[in-house]
């Protein structure tokens, strides 16, 4: 009888175009992957992959097997999620998260995932959205919460939330600001996200007018660092106010309400259309419920 594990192996080899990469994805060894494929080929009486060439290619019979394997594995996943006790769902998957979400609704999300799937383990990777997108396409992570929209055709995405971006500073800096013009703002360092991020690009575009002074931009991939620098009056942070709500409420930071306004950061959940995606879809459903909670709805 054809083994589901062997079918899953064939799918990942075809998608990643490598026995080694498939072994890493499935947390096993390359020899074990080769044994699974060899056993399946012996059982079917046909060759699934052409190993005679430098580049791994799938045979016509292999392509037929892929079609059936994808359907069978999807049906198995649907059955398990429809019938099985969710509290017994186990395994590990890798979640990539943009740091803005870490500072807002991620803790509530993780609590609900843990309550719903107590045996499901998450490996969380925090990075800028540009890197998360690449790691998702490279199969290094399974699911990502990042700035969208995503243009990659292989990625399935779901709108999650949006965060306004504003100029935030300490009361000390606010006291020295009169008009709030861009010329005046440029007297202080601007503290914002790392290069190749949407806020960084938007800040540079905002001051692209030759008539405006060129601001000093301090970029960092660590929001905690930017917040600390803003609290210490080292510059004006260009960040979502949602990540510093406690400091704003306590008066340690103030929103400068500078015009023109910067575009909101729109976050999506992104994952690949693999046969095991049903688990990811259910986890994303939890995320969409979390961002609808009253304490987060003002950020949408």
If you had to describe this structure to a student in words, what would you say it looks like?
The chain has 300 residues and is of the alpha/beta class. It folds into 3 domains: 4-83, Winged helix-like DNA-binding domain superfamily/Winged helix DNA-binding domain (Arc Repressor Mutant, subunit A, Orthogonal Bundle), CATH 1.10.10.10; 87-160 and 266-297, Periplasmic binding protein-like II (D-Maltodextrin-Binding Protein, domain 2); 163-264, D-Maltodextrin-Binding Protein, domain 2 (3-Layer(aba) Sandwich). It is built from 14 helices and 11 strands. The protein has helices at residues 4-16, 19-25, 30-44, 60-83, 99-102, 106-116, 129-137, 171-175, 182-185, 198-206, 223-231, 245-250, 277-290, 294-297; strands spanning 49-50, 57-58, 91-97, 120-126, 143-147, 155-169, 190-193, 217-220, 236-239, 254-255, 262-272. Strands 3, 4, 5, 6, 7, 8, 9, 10 and 11 form a 9-stranded mixed β-sheet that branches. Strands 1-2 form a two-stranded antiparallel sheet. Helix 1 (4-16) crosses helix 2 (19-25), helix 1 (4-16) packs across helix 4 and helix 6 (106-116) crosses helix 13 (277-290).
Question: What is the CATH C-level name of the largest domain?
Answer: Alpha Beta
Q: Please describe the biggest sheet, giving its number of strands, its sense, and whether it closes into a barrel.
A: 9 strands, mixed
Unreliable stretches (pLDDT < 50, length at least 5) are none
| Reported CATH architecture of the largest domain | 3-Layer(aba) Sandwich
Number of helices, where a helix is a run of at least 4 consecutive DSSP H or I residues: 14
CATH superfamily of the largest domain: Periplasmic binding protein-like II
Distance from N terminus to C terminus (CA atoms, Å) equals 50 Å
Per DSSP E runs of 2 or more residues, the count of β-strands stands at 11
The share of residues in extended strands comes to 15-25%
The coarse silhouette is: elongated
Under CATH, the topology of the largest domain is which?
D-Maltodextrin-Binding Protein, domain 2
| Structural class determined from secondary elements | alpha/beta
Helical residue percent?
Answer: 40-55%
Query: What number of domains?
Result: 3
What multimeric state do the chains show?
A: single chain
> From N to C, what is the helix and strand string?
HHHEEHEHHEHEEHHEHEHEHEEHH
């Amino acid at each position: 009888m054809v083994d589901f594990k062997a079918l899953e192996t064939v799918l990942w080899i075809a998608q990643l175009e490598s026995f080694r990469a498939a072994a890493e994805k499935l947390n096993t060894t390359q020899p074990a992957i080769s044994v699974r494929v060899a056993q399946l080929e012996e059982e079917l009486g046909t060759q699934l992959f052409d190993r005679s060439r430098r580049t791994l290619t799938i045979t016509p019979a292999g392509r037929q097997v892929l079609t059936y394997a994808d359907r069978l594995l999807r049906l198995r996943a649907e059955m398990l999620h429809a019938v099985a006790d969710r509290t017994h769902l186990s395994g590990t998957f890798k979640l990539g998260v943009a740091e803005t979400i870490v500072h807002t609704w991620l803790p509530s999300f993780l609590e609900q995932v843990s309550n719903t799937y107590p045996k499901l383990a998450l490996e969380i990777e925090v990075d800028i959205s540009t890197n998360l997108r690449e790691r998702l396409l490279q199969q290094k992570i399974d699911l990502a919460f990042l700035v969208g929209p995503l243009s990659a055709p292989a990625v399935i995405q779901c709108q999650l939330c949006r965060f306004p971006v504003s100029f935030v500073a300490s009361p000390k800096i606010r006291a020295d600001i009169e008009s709030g013009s861009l010329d005046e703002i440029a007297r202080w360092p601007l503290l914002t996200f790392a290069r190749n991020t949407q806020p960084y690009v938007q800040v540079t575009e905002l001051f692209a007018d030759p008539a405006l002074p060129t601001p000093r931009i301090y970029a960092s991939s660590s929001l905690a660092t930017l917040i600390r620098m803003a609290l210490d009056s080292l510059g004006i942070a260009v960040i979502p106010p949602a990540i510093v709500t406690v400091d704003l409420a306590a008066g340690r930071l103030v929103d400068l309400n500078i015009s023109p306004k910067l575009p909101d950061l729109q976050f999506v959940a992104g994952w690949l259309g693999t046969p095991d995606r049903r688990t990811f879809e259910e986890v994303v459903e939890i995320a969409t419920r979390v961002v609808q909670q009253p304490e987060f709805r003002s950020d949408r």
